[in-house]
């Protein structure tokens, strides 16, 4: 009995250590993402780049994510490892940031940032897979590990805002090198977990494309995602033009990251009682209102206050669309459907928003940019409504 208790105690201690390592890794990894989302665009703005140039950098990175996620996904399945890929990805990020430190030429920086995004964008899906597989060994649910990533993003956003306000935006890349290096250290302490080998069904993608209702739904996802990416890619630039300091910009990210936590909890607990398409229509309408406010309001403090709407825009849209996809697509093509969603959400929407949005922002100004994005969100809301009514009639 004593021996059995000792073994259980050792297993429990090991599980706790593994969970702590994963949480630390997630926290640190998302600290880097906080820099990538808001403070690196400000770094480029401080170097004299225009809004359209920043949009090109952003869109090229998200376009690169399409290939990066496919390649890293195949590599993970082929070599049966995620941890080793983390080392490759993190060293790649560190090298690209170091190369860029003394560069000023737009074309060269654009190429370096595209390569940086190649190493940075697969971190999320790979880490999600690792957390899911680890729960079988540690007994810790995925959400209780992933939430530390959200905390890392929120706390670091505000903390880095204060730090960069004190030392200057020109040191953003140095801070990024520190967070990437810390993540590398934490990667050393996490374990590699293996799932069952799965065969990628490429034929599933083409079968999905033959179903009109699935194609229409993904088109609506693309429209709404484009509105979201337009907001995301130029929020920091907008706040800076409005006179916001780095600390206030960091506070805006803190508000948005923390605001989505309660809505995700409520959707997880009660979301199954609500229909997905009306929820998506609501999210799109709230995106339209949020984007319109960003174009109409001039006080940076009020602009920051609109970030609380992140809960009813991104929080509802992202989780509900994933849930609807799981119902819409047959199990045998689920992986293909998820891959298509990722390509649309990250790559296609990012490419459109970066190129189109950057041009509109630079040529016509902030109000025209956000009002265009609001119009795109309204189009998505109308699309979700018509899609819902059409499917409802068929059910009748």
Can you give a write-up of this model?
This protein is mainly α and 396 residues long. It folds into 2 domains: 17-190, Growth Hormone, Chain: A (Up-down Bundle), CATH 1.20.1250; 198-396, MFS general substrate transporter like domains (Growth Hormone, Chain: A). It has 15 helices and no strands. The chain has helices spanning 2-46, 51-79, 83-100, 106-120, 123-138, 142-167, 172-189, 202-208, 212-241, 246-270, 276-296, 300-305, 314-328, 334-364, 366-395. α1 (2-46) runs parallel beside α6. The longest helix is centred in the first third of the chain and has 45 residues, at 2-46. The relative contact order is 0.14. The model has no long low-confidence stretch (mean pLDDT 84).
